[in-house]
Design goal:
This protein is mostly beta strands. The chain has 1 helix and 9 strands.
Length: 178
């Protein structure tokens, strides 16, 4: 299933580059997390003025010391400017790392689970190509801090948060902007 989702995210750009009549910017990328694992990313950026955009995105990644894939859903704020055929940008991201895993508690009376709570991230990057080009390659570096909560639930009681864990991670992205 991971390979299917990753393939859909990466191939979307090839089928939608013909719709470049609107000013929105779409980005699809291959993510290399902590220089160890691969993931994918897809984001949409409607412009607010000439240099600023606020958009949304979704990733499929692995976070260090987390056993399953994490799917961050986020808001993405970008500032970019054009320098001849290079367009540098800086961005801030924040959202929810969609993750929920039962850690223990096979009995029906108790259970412990790890849930994604929030994340914040920032980064820099650049795209290469003429301002009028439909498709441009881009590269970016992002740094994120993920927060997870481990909760303990016993039947008939309110869930108790046992620990809040944070994971830091950097990611390199290589993709196309269309």
């Amino acid at each position: 299933m991971k390979q299917f989702c990753l393939g859909v995210m990466l191939c979307t750009s090839f089928f939608s580059s013909a719709q470049k009549k609107n000013p929105w910017v779409f980005q699809t990328s291959l993510e290399v997390n902590q220089l160890r694992t691969l993931g994918g990313s897809f984001s949409i950026h409607p412009p607010l003025g000439k240099h600023f955009s606020i958009g949304a995105g979704i990733d499929l990644i692995r976070v260090r010391n987390i056993s399953k894939n994490v799917v961050p859903i986020y808001l993405d704020t970008r500032f970019n400017f054009q320098l001849k055929n290079i367009q540098p940008f800086v961005f801030l991201q924040g959202g929810l790392p969609a993750y929920n895993k039962l850690l223990s508690g096979t009995a029906s009376t108790t259970r412990t689970e790890l849930k994604g709570k929030s994340f914040l991230g920032s980064g820099v990057g650049f795209s290469i190509g003429k301002p009028t080009a439909k498709v441009k390659p881009f590269w970016s570096f992002k740094y994120r801090i993920y927060q997870f909560a481990e909760t303990f639930t016993q039947t008939g009681e309110r869930p108790k948060v046992m620990a809040r864990t944070e994971r830091e991670q950097f990611t390199f992205s290589l993709g196309i902007q269309y």
